[in-house]
Amino acid sequence: MAGRPASKVRAAVRVVSGERLEVRTDFLATEEPMEVRLVAGRHRRTVAVTMRTPGHDFELAAGFLFCEGVVRSRDEVARIAYCLDERLDAEQRYNVVTVELRAQQLPDLQPLERHFYTSSACGVCGKASLEALRVRGCPVLDGGPVLDPRLLRELPERLRRAQGLFAQTGGLHAAALFDAEGRLLAVREDVGRHNAMDKLVGWALLEGRLPLRDSVVMVSGRASFELVQKAVAAGAPVFCAVSAPSSLAVEVARAFGVTLVGFLRGDRFNVYTGAERVHGVAAEQGKVATP
Length: 291
Prior knowledge:
Layout: E1 8-17, E2 20-29, E3 32-40, E4 43-52, H1 57-67, E5 77-82, E6 96-101, H2 110-119, H3 126-135, H4 149-162, H5 164-169, E7 173-179, E8 184-190, H6 193-206, E9 215-219, H7 225-234, E10 238-241, H8 247-255, E11 259-265, E12 268-273
Parallel strand pairs: 3-6, 9-10, 10-11
Antiparallel strand pairs: 1-2, 3-4, 5-6, 7-8, 7-9, 11-12
Helix pairs in contact: 1-6, 6-7, 7-8
């Protein structure tokens, strides 16, 4: 479609290496605003504006609404489309996504107010964040796969090989979904780590794959509360991160039965919660080294 923003753009760059200067063309990850509009019957409302990397925009909108508890199933969504308003310039039309619901009234948007409140630096406590998930009816996750440590160690490299845009730009976060045998099911990239996760969950929602009972979520950075709560909402029992988790991410994972793995790189990884899903790890719980 003409005017649709690309996921990467060319830029002139001067590369300094020691005493050598080289002028060349490089690729940058695109960062553009995207507005999400919700429509139900005659009611219309803008519910979010996010900075994102263009691509998989419908999944981003659907995943965001699902993870925030506004949309609870694929059946509630009648249509997702760009806003092709002739009053907008050609490029801007593809920065507005409209999600049309089957209902004639807008749903309760209180979850979105909680989202913006708890995402700001205003001191909302961890208990309030956990309670918000419980109010939404997110269940404690039981069952799920029992994974071989060797399989876990292979996931970061499998994720890296699937990151096409990152290989070209070096400036994107990624979220991937693997099955219990380590096969890659989907990967999504974005300048925002939360957007990458929303795109992944949105893909699963629109493909009818939720809940993700026997799957493993892997992210390219750290495990924040926001990312783990999105995994909880999607029903994913295992969450892995290349980097560290936050304290609230661990608390959420423990409360909702998620296996949380951090610092997954090379030959090592840390299991913070749900050790029973990693073969041979739960049996070692009594052996704790004193720092």
